[in-house]
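Researcher: Sequence of Flavin-dependent monooxygenase follows. Predict its structure.
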Amino acid sequence: MPTPATPVTIIGAGLGGLTLARVLHVHGIPVTVYEAEPSPDARSQGGMLDIHDYNGQLALQAAGLMDEFRAIVLEGRQAMRVLDRDGTVLFDKADDGTGGRPEVQRGDLRRILLDSLPDGTVRWGHKVIGTRTLGEGRHEVTFTDGGTVVTSLLVGADGAWSRVRPLLSTAVPQYTGTSCVDTYLFDADTRHPAVAKAVGGGSLIVTTSGREIFAHREKGDTLHAYVGLSEPQDWFAAIDFTDTAAATARIAAEFDGWAPELTALITDSDTAPVLRPLYTLPDEHRWDRVPGVTLVGDAAHLAAPNGEGANLAMLDGAELGKALAAYPDDIEAALTEYEQAMFSRSAEVAAFEGVEFHRIDSDGNTAHGLIKMTGEKGR
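Model: Prediction complete. Tokens:
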């Protein structure tokens, strides 16, 4: 027997789905979120996010959570350093407190969203295996335990490999040609001082053709690095990531000749290297209006990391919630308004090229660069 559904059913308790749930709750609209993970603490929630004043913070304002957000901001983390592979500093910007991209831990941000929802809003341990259209804007969701739910409004906030997306689109994520390897250095200032000095108080970017390192300082004196390599997936498949020493050595060999304080982000990791292939949906991915269903975040517009992914997912959730509140008796009008605006802003963000930097060398010459973002920040 199908489980009774609230008027809005969200699949996925990531930042986009939870922001939507919170904004709906603020407007008195009942909602249920189904999440595959068995509990809020089932896995690590990733690293740092810079939450922008032009999208992510607007979403938090709509959710009424700006005070809670300010309480989790890590001061000083908007500092940014760009280094050459030999350790030469190309760009060094301190955090003067005036930037519009304060940094928080992804897990802390998710927690304040979860805490803002009534008990029972999120149903943990509900992994979706299929969805189907029943007609008249109604859809059925089937879970791995055999349970089902029928809803008049289904929102896919379930990421890159969304089970809801096939109701709207035949698009599937494609490998970008680049993968990241995650590493962590704990107690960095005392145990890894040279690396800590290189990273500085915020973010570090070092990039060459096909090889790059992005790192940032998390709370608790932890350095988190994303080591990017542009190689086909078969290349990574030849590395045994269950053998920590061998995998670490193989990845480090690709950075031979780099400054030791940079390669130490690989070789001195206090955790086993974790491989994360990067995927993207087609540019300007969109679909025709299908009654009773839509997507937010990576389910709708998965892109190569560019610092905007998490922010955009949250804004999607907030804007959809506001549209549903504005059209309480006309779901289709709300979805049409939301999707048209979402298609436009996601296409604009997909065209983002990277972070520009300028420096003046000792001879007075101006150097200019463009850093392509790869790691997790802002995803």
